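Progress against Task 2.4 (sequence-to-structure conversion) is shown through the following example record, which the project officer requested during the mid-term review.
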Amino acid sequence: MEFGSFLLSLGTSAVIFVVLMFLFSWLSRKEGNVSIYYPNRILKGMDPWEGSSLTRNPFAWIREAFTTSEQDVVNLSGVDTAVYFVFLSTVLGIFALSGVLLLPTLLPLAATDHNIKTNARNATDTTSKGTFSQLDNLSMANITKKSWRLWAFLGAVYWVSLVTYFMLWKAYKHVSTLRAQALMSADALPEQFAILVRDIPSPPNGQTQKEFIDSFFREIYPETFYRSLVVTENSKVNKIWGDLEGYKKKLARAEAINASTNKRPTNKTGFLGLVGKQVDSIEYYTELINESVAKLETEQKAVLAEKQQTAAVVFFTDRVTAALAAQSLHCQMVDKWTVTEAPEPRQLIWKNLKIKLFGRIIRQYLIYFLVAVTILFYMIPIVAISAITTLKNLQKLLPFIKPVVDITFIRTILESYLPQIALLVFLAMLPKFLLFLSKAEGIPSQSHAIRAASGKYFYFSVFNVFIGVTLGGSLFETLKIIQKDPNSTVTILATSLPKSATFFLTYVALKFFVGYGLELSRIIPLIIFHLKKKYLCKTEDEVKEAWYPGDLNYATRVPGDMLILTITFCYSVIAPLILVFAVVYFGLGWLILRNQALKVYVPAYESYGRMWPHIHTRILAALFLFQVVMFGYLGIKLFVWAILLVPLVVISLLFGYVCRQKFYGGFQHTALEVASHELKQNPNLEEIFKAYIPHSLSSHKGEDHQFKGAMSRYQDYAAISAA
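C-alpha cells generated for the chain above:
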C-alpha cells in the first residue's frame, strides 16, 4: 500500500467516525429513538436521561462514561461487564506504558539508520508489502544487520514483557476481588444454594430416580439438604410450549389488528399462511391455544413420570454447604455422581446435562479435532482473500476492471479498504458455527459455551487472520520453503511479518474508527427498528422484540479485541507506530462500550468474572508469540544476542503457571470464606427451587415469583431450555 493510500484510509475513517459520533448525539436526543439508545435503563425502570437533559451538549456522554464508577457498571450490567472493562483498561495500560518508552527511543533509532536505501529496498525489510513506504523508515526494517542499535529493540521486548506481567498481575488481583465482593452479596441468589449433579447411576429396584438422589444426599448432608430437581427429557414438551407461546403472540397480534381496524383479520392454515383454508384468525388461534394447553398438561405429566434423566439440580439450605458440596468428591468412582457449581437457571443447556463423563471427554476431543481441521481449511480462503484482493491480482483475474482501477481516486479507495472489508465480512460467518461446536461438547451452561467458543475464535483468528494474512502475499513461495525445511516456520513468519505492517495498521484503524463509530451511532439497529415498528409490529411485545438489544456478545467481541492485541504485540517493536493505533483502539473501546454497557446492552447471563482466566491465558499466549517472533526477527538481523530472549520466554511460561496456581482456584470454585457471609434475610428455598423449573414444566406464573428480579434476568430462559 502506498503511503498516500494509507493516509487517505486513515483520514476517511476518522471523518466517518466524527460524522457518526455527531449523528449519535443528535439521534439519541429524539424521543422516538429512546428505546434504541437507552434500552438497558428502560428495562430497569430508570429515566433514560437520568442526570442529563434533552438539550445536553454532544459530548455529555463522554463525561458520563468517565464519571461512572465501577460499582455502577456492576449494578447496571453485572460483574462480567465490569471485568471486560478491566480487560480493556489493562491492555490500554500495557500499550500506553510500552509506548512511553518505545516511541521516543525506537523511532529515532530507526529513522536515522539507512538499511533500506543501502539494500535497495530489499523485499525482506519492508513494511509495505513490496511498495516502498515512508513508514519503512520508522520501523525495525530500516535497522542495519548486526547494528548496535538492535540492543535497543532487544531491550524493548523486555520492557513490553515486564509491563505486561505487572499489569496482568494487578488485573488478576482486582478481578478476584470483584468476583468475591459480588458472591458475598447479602441478597439470596438461586445458584448459590444449588449444585449440578451429573453421571447419576441407575436407582436400585423399588426406588425412583428422585428418591435415589434424595436419599444419597440426605445421608451425606442430613441437616442442610433441601430437595432435588431431576433433569428430564424436555424436547417434546418444549416444542408444545413453544408452539403455545407462538399462538399467544399471534392471537395478541390478531386482536390488536382487530382493535385498530375494527375488522377481524383472517389467515390461511397451510404452509407459512400462504395456502390452505381461509379462517378467522382470532377464533383459529384461540382454538389452537386451547388444544395446546391440553397437550401441554398431558405431556408435562408424562415427562415427570417417565422421562427422568441421569442428572439433577440439588438444593441446600445454606450457601456454605452448596459451595462445599460443589468442590467435593462424592463417589469413589470419578465417573459417577460428578458435582459442579450450578449455573444460573437461565444458563442451563438442559439437553447436555444427561451426557455421561466419558461421552463428554470423547466429544471434547472430537470437537478439538474438528476445530483444528476448520482452522486448517479456513486458512485456504483467508489466504486466497488476502492474495486476490490486491489490485494487481484482481486485474489478472478480472481484466475488464482495468479501466476502472486506473482512475487514481478509485484505485486509492480500493487499495485502502478492499482487503480489510473482505476479511471482516468473511470472518462474520464463523462465530455461530464455533458456538454450535462448543455446545456439542456437552458443556452445561451458556456462559461456559461462550467462553469455549471465544477461545476457539481467538486461536482461529491468530492462525488464520494474523498468520494467514502475513504469509498470504507469498503463499506459494512459503509452502515450497516449508516443504524443503519444516523447521523454518518461525524464520518465515518473522521475515514475512514486516511486509504486512501497513495492512494491519489500516485494519486496526478501520476497526476503531468505523467499527466503534457504528457501535456508538447504532444506525443499523435504528433503521431496522423503525422499519419493523412501522410495517410489522402490531403489539407492544412485538415492538419490544424489535428494539431489544441483546448483550455485549463476548463470544466475538473478546476474540476480536484479542486479535488486535496479538497484532499490536507482534508489531510493537518492529513498527512501534502501531502502539498509537492500539491505544486509540482500546481507549475508544473503553469509552464507547462503557456508554453502551450502561445504557444499551442487557446482560444475557452472569458468571461473576469467569471469563477472566481465559482472557489472561490468551494475553499470555499473544505475548509468547510476540517473544518467539522477535527472537526469529532478531536472528534474521544476524544479532547474536537474540539468544537473550530465551529466558524471557521461560519467564512468561512461569508467570502463567504462578498466576494459575495463585488465582484460578477462586474462579473455578466459590471460596468458603466468601460463601459464609451472612444474608440480610433467610431465603425462601421453595422460590429458589421454582427458579430452576423450566418454563415448559412450570405451573406458576413468573410475574408472581419472589425472584421476579432474578426471573427478569432469566428472560431468555425459555429459549435456552429449548436449546
